[in-house]
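Example S7 (structure tokens).
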């Protein structure tokens, strides 16, 4: 009996071990097949519930998830690198394009590459007042280039805000009227909007704005933000080239103008030389005439000029001769240097009052020479005005009266007219 029970238990154990062995063999085959599929890149391959509940199955599923993640990352990385390579070829041809053509080329390919349906490129410009603004230079929507002219002020809408903040803006909740009010990309209501600054070395050149009827994948957002710097560099290079070409054209035009002006100047110089020779001849004749007149006045008239304070600024030879002062002694001295004590103060009040009103004063005056002697003059004093009618100096012309009796008689006759005391 005991022997029978022992043999029965042993048989069950053997059967159980055999069953477990078959199960392990099945799991091993399934695991080998699963691994083979994974090696082929088939990450959609599945395992049975029996294997998935085992330690081996759990390890295999963990391995699959890890390899699947690596494959997705590699796929994303390849997509990103391929895109950058494609656009690098486009941007390398920038020297043969103007700014609008370059922007059209970039936008057309970018909208398609990131599965967007609308896009626009705005470039930072400045007006004649020096104020900066965004100018739309390229617009693409629904597989067609759009010909729009849109100006966005800095800080206006999301595009203007993006320039000020120098950071990308990604919206997933879009108001139904956003495109019409803020974007200018078209009439459809997008599901998501991405606005990225075209920035290089902290200097912004514009923004790129993309709209999609679906949400942008994270790798699309990263790609657009990375590409934006390359686009900014290309826009900078194109604008620099356009500016250089403009300066070159302006320089060539200026050179032609200068050549024309140089020829005109040469002809003018020849005319001026001839005119100068004629003028020098006339000036020589006039100078000679003036010298003759000055010599005549120096013999016959006593001449002086005074500033607004009555200080002498010019005295001719005749004045120095009669007053017995050297010319350098008179310059800068007041006219009362010649005042004789017999002359009443009222006479000089009348004298200066008349001149300051802009009127001419004529009169007989007794003057004192440097040695204390006296001399009589018959003078005419004139206020001289500038082109605005403002007095800036006084000129006096006098004739020397040699006979004291005649001078005294003429003075007293003048005093009666002016109401001044008589002299004996």
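Recovered sequence:
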């Amino acid at each position: 009996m005991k022997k029978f029970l022992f043999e029965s238990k042993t048989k069950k154990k053997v059967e159980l071990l055999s069953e477990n062995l078959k199960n392990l063999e099945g799991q091993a085959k399934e695991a080998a097949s699963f691994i083979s599929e994974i090696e082929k890149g088939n990450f959609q391959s599945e395992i049975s519930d029996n294997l998935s509940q085992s330690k081996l199955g759990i390890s295999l599923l963990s391995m699959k998830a890890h390899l699947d993640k690596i494959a997705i990352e590699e796929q994303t990385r390849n997509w990103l690198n391929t895109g950058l390579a494609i656009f690098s070829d486009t941007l390398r041809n920038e020297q043969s394009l103007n700014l609008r053509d370059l922007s059209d080329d970039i936008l057309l390919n970018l909208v398609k590459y990131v599965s967007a349906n609308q896009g626009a490129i705005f470039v930072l410009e400045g007006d004649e007042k020096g104020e900066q603004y965004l100018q739309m230079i390229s617009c693409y929507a629904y597989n067609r280039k759009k010909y729009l002219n849109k100006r966005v002020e800095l800080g206006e809408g999301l595009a203007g805000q993006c320039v000020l903040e120098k950071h990308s803006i990604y919206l997933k909740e879009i108001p139904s009227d956003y495109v019409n009010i803020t974007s200018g990309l078209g009439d459809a209501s997008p599901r998501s909007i991405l606005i990225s600054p075209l920035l290089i070395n902290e200097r912004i050149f514009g923004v790129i704005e993309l709209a999609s009827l679906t949400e942008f994948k994270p790798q699309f957002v990263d790609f657009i933000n990375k590409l934006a710097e390359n686009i900014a560099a290309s826009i900078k290079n194109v604008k620099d080239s356009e500016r250089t070409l403009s300066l070159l054209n302006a320089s060539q035009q200026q050179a032609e103008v200068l050549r024309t002006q140089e020829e005109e100047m040469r002809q003018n110089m020849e005319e001026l030389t001839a005119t100068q020779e004629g003028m020098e001849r006339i000036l020589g004749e006039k100078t000679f005439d003036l010298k003759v007149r000055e010599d005549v006045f120096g013999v016959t008239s006593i001449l002086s000029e005074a500033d607004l304070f009555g200080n002498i600024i010019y005295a001719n030879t005749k004045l120095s001769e009669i007053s017995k002062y050297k010319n350098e002694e008179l310059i800068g001295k007041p006219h009362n240097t010649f005042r004789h004590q017999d002359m009443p103060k009222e006479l000089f009040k009348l004298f200066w009052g008349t001149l300051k009103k802009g009127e001419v004063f004529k009169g007989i005056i007794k003057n004192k020479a440097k040695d204390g002697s006296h001399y009589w003059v018959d003078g005419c004093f004139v206020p001289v005005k500038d082109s605005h009618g403002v007095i800036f100096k006084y000129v006096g012309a006098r004739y020397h009266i040699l006979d004291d009796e005649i001078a005294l008689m003429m003075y007293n006759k003048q005093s009666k007219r002016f109401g001044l005391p008589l002299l004996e």
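Notes on this example. Residues 133 and 153 are 5 Å apart (CA to CA).
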